[in-house]
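Entry 12.
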Amino acid sequence: MLGLKSMTMTRLEKLTKIGLNSEDSARVLIYSDQGVRWIKNVDGLNHQKEMDKLIDEVVSKPRKQINDFVAFVKDKYFAPEGEEVDNEDFIRRWNGAYEVLTSNLKVKST
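Predicted 3D structure (tokens):
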């Protein structure tokens, strides 16, 4: 009998499994990499572990929250072409997207 290892899904596979297209998945991966590298100042093996944790956090959220997060990353995290982003603006943009990802969804009362 062959000893088969269980296959671990890649980060991209996890994102596409929850319904993100390749473009949105790439944006989320870039956002995650930049945050782990430049906001959290993680490198090496710990970088990979932190990336996995962040992607797992994304895919664990309710669909509406994922959609809101992806929309924020797409529309507000990345600067328009030709626009310079300084360090302060980068941190503000990254934290804004993270806030959308981690905020508790509020139920509107009627």
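Annotation: The radius of gyration is 16 Å. Residues 64 and 109 are 18 Å apart (CA to CA).
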